Amino acid sequence: MKIPIVLVVLLGSLSCSPAAFAQSPAGPTDESTAKNGPPAPVAFVYVARPTHLDAFAVAADGALTPTPGAPFANLSLAALVANQKYLVALDDSGASLLTFAIQSNGSLDPVSTLNVKKYLPCIAGYADQTMLSMNTTGADVYLVAPDCDANNHLLSFKVESNGDLGFLGASNYVYSVDANFFSQPTFLSSDAYAYQVGCTYKDDTNEVQLTTYKRSSSGMLEYHEASDSPVPTPPASAGGIYCPIAAATGPSSHLAVVMGDVDNNGNYIGNTVLATYSANSQGVLTTKSTYENMPVVPDAWIAQALSISPSGKYLALAGDGIQIYHFNGSSPITHFVTAKLGAFFDEVAWDGSDHVYVHDPQNGNVHVFAVSSSGIKEAPGSPYSIPESTAITVVNR
To answer: How confident is the model at residue 64, as a pLDDT?
Structure first.
């Protein structure tokens, strides 16, 4: 059994034209419209599928309503990221980045298309190695893409004021697709450093990777160092090592990492656990986590996607069901509540109102839950059927 990594699946083909958006009605243009009409949404949710892009406004209770013009047709997108003004998407070939302007009602207007082959001429198109991420302010976009020699490159792009993407450069760190398995970069709240986690398989030996990138003043990410911070050691009776599977950051200098106890072939032989790290002003990570104080994940396959709420109070772990934890900074993470749905979730995201969104790719559903001190409750109308959906992103209002 191999380690599940947080990855994006690429499907279909791309066809994008302004005509696909021509019937999108204009949304409210000032606050008075929102005050005199329905309550303003607390967030927008965008869901990609092979032929469409769905867009929803989120009510205070977590209910979703399609935005004007949605779903937007003639789009085949594999990954999505967004800030308050623009949504950036990767097409299913991994060769183009498309930018859309987010209107006040959540509707989308196409802005630009950037051919990534200008900067990485030979793109291999490995679906399980192409990843898209954004820094915490939404100023920059980062693409991890493999070349035809099976090496992964990290490309940095600036989101210009008009929505165009400006190429900043490629990181000086290149790693092999075959030898390494990494999560996408995740940023500290300061935006100064980002981290990738994973394991290196070389000569039938597992080597843990906690890779640190430094973000320059221009927004470009450069390889900084392989962290010297120790990874907790499993009990001797279990054997193997704790291999980092996924990481998440919140509104602090702390990092949550889910780890699986694996042997040299990448097979699970022990427990899956949750560790927490703290970063200093130089991005150096330290941890107080040990196998004695880390919570054990009930099911190894639940470790598929990890996300910390904007409030910093909760940590969501998705996979075979969803687990909600209390995130306690540098102190050990503590379990809060479980929602087992008999479905496998590959993505998880929060809005600023403590709604958590999980994507079920097998059944083509998006579930929405409201999390509070009293527990977890599925929002009205959830789950929402979005057949063949591939990716989600959430924009807070």
So the answer is: 97
DSSP state of 123: B
Beta strands at 391-396 and 43-48: parallel, antiparallel or unpaired: antiparallel
Q: Report the alpha-carbon distance of residue 82 to residue 73 in Å, rounded.
A: 19
CA 49 → CA 12, 199, 315, 358, 390, distances in Å? 9, 30, 27, 15, 5
Strands 365-372 and 384-385: antiparallel
| Tokens of residue 78, six digits | 């594999």
Q: Is there a contact between 207 and 200 (Cβ–Cβ < 8 Å)?
A: yes
Q: Are 132 and 200 in contact (CB under 8 A)?
A: no
Q: In what order do the strands lie in the sheet with 108-115?
A: 77-82, 86-91, 96-102, 108-115
Long-range pairs for 255-258: beta carbons < 8 A, 24 or more residues apart = 255/186, 255/188, 255/195, 255/279, 255/285, 256/306, 256/308, 256/315, 256/327, 256/333, 257/197, 257/210, 258/297, 258/303, 258/306, 258/317
Return the H-helix or E-strand segment holding 209. Answer: strand 205-215
Peptide bond before residue 71 is cis, with ω within 30 degrees of 0: yes
Identify the segments of the chain with pLDDT beneath 70.
1-37, 124-129, 175-181, 201-206, 299-302
Closest by alpha carbon to 390, among 357, 366, 356? 366
Q: Could you say which DSSP state residue 249 is in?
A: E
Output the pLDDT for position 30: 46
Tell which CATH architecture fits domain 18-396. 7 Propeller (2.130)
The residues pairing with 334 across neighbouring beta strands, listed in sequence order, are 326
How far does CA 391 lie from the centroid of its chain?
Answer: 9
- Residue 300 has what pLDDT? 55
Would you state the pLDDT for residue 73? 92
Sign of the CA dihedral running 69, 165, 251, 104? negative
Q: What is the pLDDT of residue 29?
A: 45
Map residue 176 onto helix, strand or coil.
strand
